[in-house]
Design brief:
The protein has one helix and five strands, in the order βββββα. By secondary structure, it is mainly beta.
């Protein structure tokens, strides 16, 4: 990865390969998905963004929240 993003999401420029961790912080989503409005986030063309899920576990490991375990 060229950049790991954690904490507040805004006021940044992403390029190359970016990994967004589970503890990224965005504004609350109320009524409409506009939590990036006024964010000033630039993602340059050709950038690859990976977004963590399930407490940063790799998706191929599965998740009990999907299997009811």
């Amino acid at each position: 990865m060229d950049k790991v993003v954690e904490g507040p999401l805004c006021h940044d420029t992403w390029r190359s390969t970016v990994y967004v961790t589970c503890n990224v912080q965005v504004r609350a989503w109320e009524k409409r998905p506009d939590f990036l409005k006024g964010c000033n986030l630039t993602i340059e063309p050709g950038t690859v963004v990976y977004v963590a899920a399930h407490n940063d576990a790799a998706y191929y490991n599965g998740c009990s929240c999907h299997f009811g375990e």
